[in-house]
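User: Show me a protein chain along with its predicted structure.
Assistant: Here is one chain, sequence first, then structure tokens.
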Amino acid sequence: MSIFSKIMDAISFKGTRPTQTGQHHDAPAQAAPVPSAAGAAPQAAPAPAVPPATAAPVLQDVDVEAQLAQLAQGKNLNWQSSIVDLMKLVGIDSSLDNRKELARELGYTGALDGSAEMNIWLHKATMRKLAENGGKVPASMTD
């Protein structure tokens, strides 16, 4: 499971991530064959108008800030702007290796050196990606 997927799961996005086939974990199974009249061989149910792999995802709205604030109660973490603290908050090892992996997942093109520049970019990119996946994220965390 990718680092970003682990972050999503920790913020209650479970079941909303697309699988590698493009279907969501909570997507219904394929329809069963529909019997035809007069005992003829069953026919397959009509195909959906848009194939599942290309259908726009229907994601639940997740209030990312509220979920994280709840997780942060009683903890002294600056998760609102620090990728290291955000990862710690959701129970993910914030090592440089994991931040490098997250950077690659999110398309970071700079040096994978753990610099302030990389970490600030990672936090903002993570928040933008959460918003793209149905999360409600304040603009101050994505700009």
